[in-house]
């Protein structure tokens, strides 16, 4: 078997553990130098492949690569860029082949969510459509937890832990002030179409720590009157209430409550700002004093409070991707298979990319309480293992001591390409 180089890149919104997957890819590849030569990282995702902006990961030591396991965000830069079909933009595929040929690349590892899976699927088809041998393996990642087939997605467990902890801590705060001040705290979390992250806020309340929490899911159409009645009831009973709202909540007209009319690079509505919308509904409808906050990048960058389960699964997905490629697989994605919830046991499986790309996994109906504002016991049993365990990074002078790679550029061999 001829030695081929590999390409690895990160795509879409980054997470607290995406670099753990990178470590899994790079460390495993370094154990198979008889089959994989150099792993070139794409600077800023697929854009790095198209523009021949490659990073020589061999320039970084084994210690630095190991440090990726506890370092958040994307070590090589990410992007929001979706390849069009071969028929729509053949020049991009021909360019990819030029770059792959120039650098002897036979393996393609793309670390991302749903749109990234679509990109990886399209690259995997180059072998059949354009005759260039390439094995493309998707490495799952998304805080939204909306990839199908896999039980959960690396990145989600840590966000869920952050939101559960933050909801509990903020609820303690508002409870302290409720007698003479704030009665309601509204926390906005990510989740365009799926309410997995918002659901995690429900874990803040449990046996021995009961907290009045209202959750607004994208899967449940927002009903203002019903919502206000629930908040009013909780405030009268407990003296306060916390609201966890997903950015993707829609009104009865089918529009996002926070849609500002803007679009991102994938053509999706640019969301954000639903917390003040909901807070003003509470003020106008109930006259209650409120505070609101937006978790935003904080929720997905919080490596200091990452779930140990999440870190281990993220690394395992990167490792499995390389092993699947070496075994001859193409157009697949390693998955997390739940074998039992209590005790929690999981293993690594495999999914065909054709069954993953452009498919979103929503919250099941039996995970949302009957009134539409909370989570069920089934949901708790699903979520609880995913936030288990602590995996603290090393600290220096009171702050996390994160790794920054050299990111040495590979000399270019081709002419400039504009995207």
TrEMBL record:
Q: Which InterPro entries match?
A: ATP_PFK (IPR022953), PFKA (IPR050929), Phosphofructokinase_dom (IPR000023), PKF_sf (IPR035966), PPi-PFK (IPR011404)
Q: Which UniProt keywords apply?
A: Cytoplasm, Glycolysis, Kinase, Magnesium, Metal-binding, Transferase
What's a GO biological-process term for it? fructose 6-phosphate metabolic process
What's the main place this protein lives?
cytoplasm
Compartments, record wording: Cytoplasm
Q: Which reaction does it catalyse?
A: beta-D-fructose 6-phosphate + diphosphate = beta-D-fructose 1,6-bisphosphate + phosphate + H(+)
Q: Where is this site: Important for catalytic activity and substrate specificity?
A: 115
Keyword Nucleus attributed: no
GO terms for cellular component: cytoplasm
Q: Name the residues that bind diphosphate.
A: 13
Residue positions binding substrate? 142-144, 190-192, 247, 297-300
HAMAP family reported in the protein's UniProt record? Phosphofructokinase_II_B2 (MF_01978)
Self-association state and partner proteins as the record states: Homodimer.
Full protein name = Pyrophosphate--fructose 6-phosphate 1-phosphotransferase
């Amino acid at each position: 078997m001829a030695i081929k180089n590999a390409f690895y890149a990160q795509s879409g919104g980054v997470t607290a553990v995406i670099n753990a997957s990178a470590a899994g890819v790079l460390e495993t590849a370094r154990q198979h130098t008889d089959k994989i030569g150099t792993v070139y990282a794409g600077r800023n995702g697929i854009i790095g492949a198209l523009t021949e902006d490659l990073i020589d990961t061999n320039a970084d030591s084994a210690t630095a690569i190991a440090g990726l396991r506890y370092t958040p965000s994307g070590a090589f830069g990410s992007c929001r860029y979706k390849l069009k079909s071969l028929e729509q933009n053949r020049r991009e595929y021909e360019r990819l082949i030029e770059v792959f040929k120039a650098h002897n690349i036979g393996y393609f590892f793309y670390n991302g969510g749903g749109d990234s899976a679509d990109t990886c699927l399209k690259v995997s088809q180059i072998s059949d459509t354009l005759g260039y041998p390439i094995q493309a393996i998707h490495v799952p990642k998304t805080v939204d937890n909306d990839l199908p087939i896999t039980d959960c997605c690396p990145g989600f467990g840590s966000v869920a832990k952050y939101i559960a902890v933050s909801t509990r801590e903020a609820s303690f705060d508002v409870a302290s002030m409720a007698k003479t001040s704030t009665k309601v705290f509204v926390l906005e979390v990510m989740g365009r179409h799926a309410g997995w992250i918002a659901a995690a806020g429900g874990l803040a309340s449990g046996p021995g720590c009961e907290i009045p929490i209202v959750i607004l899911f994208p899967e449940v159409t927002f009903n203002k009157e019903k919502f206000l009645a629930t908040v009013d009831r909780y405030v009268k009973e407990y003296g306060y209430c916390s609201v966890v709202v997903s950015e993707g909540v829609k009104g009865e007209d089918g529009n996002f409550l926070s849609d500002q009319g803007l679009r991102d690079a994938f053509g999706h509505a640019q969301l954000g700002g639903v917390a003040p919308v909901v807070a003003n509904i509470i003020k106008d409808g109930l006259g209650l004093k409120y505070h609101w906050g937006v978790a935003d990048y904080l929720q997905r960058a919080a490596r200091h409070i990452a779930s140990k389960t999440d870190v281990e699964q993220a690394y395992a997905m990167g490792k499995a991707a390389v092993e699947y490629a070496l075994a001859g697989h193409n157009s697949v994605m390693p998955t997390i298979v739940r074998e039992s919830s209590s005790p929690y046991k999981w293993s690594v499986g495999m999914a065909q990319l054709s069954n993953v790309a452009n498919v979103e996994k929503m919250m099941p109906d039996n995970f949302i309480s009957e009134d539409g504002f909370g989570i069920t016991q089934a949901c708790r049993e699903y979520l609880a293992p995913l936030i288990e365990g602590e995996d603290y990074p090393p600290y220096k002078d009171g702050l996390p001591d994160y790794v920054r790679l050299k990111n040495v550029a590979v000399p270019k061999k081709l002419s400039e390409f504009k995207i």
